């Protein structure tokens, strides 16, 4: 017996997921009208489609900027897709804005993905973990397992796509991108980003009134 799905339910699911009308209707029928199950099924379907599209070349897109309140943090991020048509879509542009805000919020993030981390950085981080005092008396196999776990966590801390999305922590940035690949039908990649912190790298001015007065008197 087929479940009768109302147009209102289809519209609600579409608004929540961005999926096509027919996909929403089929997902609701398969879930017997349960919208939460339908959302999960659409998400799984979207991730599967995204994996198939991930090898496509993406050279179009946009460069998005974000300046945090107070103008002390600025971000530039290049987000690529396959066509200019998708680059003009509001969903793609909102994705770029969300990613730029994510970069501003995650100060520890330095790379897009683990594949982008230089080998010397990985070696250095491994050496730091290997020489921590709590590992000195551990058996080698236990020590290696602990180091492996800590390194996995540390490298994920450094990479953008492994961060929990600040607007929905149930999703990673990687999940967010894959959902948009499924929604827009094109491969989407974060190519690069740059974060600017006001005064970063500059020697902070330290006002020493006594030294300043002494200097003037000695002239």
TrEMBL record:
Entry's localization field: Cytoplasm; Mitochondrion
Gene Ontology cellular-component annotations: mitochondrion
Keyword terms: Cytoplasm, Elongation factor, Mitochondrion, Plastid, Protein biosynthesis
Keyword Plastid tagged: yes
Annotated Translation elongation factor EFTs/EF1B dimerisation domain residues: 54-200
Predominant location: cytoplasm
Xref: InterPro entries: EF-Ts_dimer_sf, Transl_elong_EFTs/EF1B, Transl_elong_EFTs/EF1B_dimer, Transl_elong_Ts_CS, UBA-like_sf
One GO MF term: translation elongation factor activity
Family of this protein: Belongs to the EF-Ts family.
Record's function text: Associates with the EF-Tu.GDP complex and induces the exchange of GDP to GTP. It remains bound to the aminoacyl-tRNA.EF-Tu.GTP complex up to the GTP hydrolysis stage on the ribosome.
Protein name: Elongation factor Ts, mitochondrial
Annotated gene: tsf
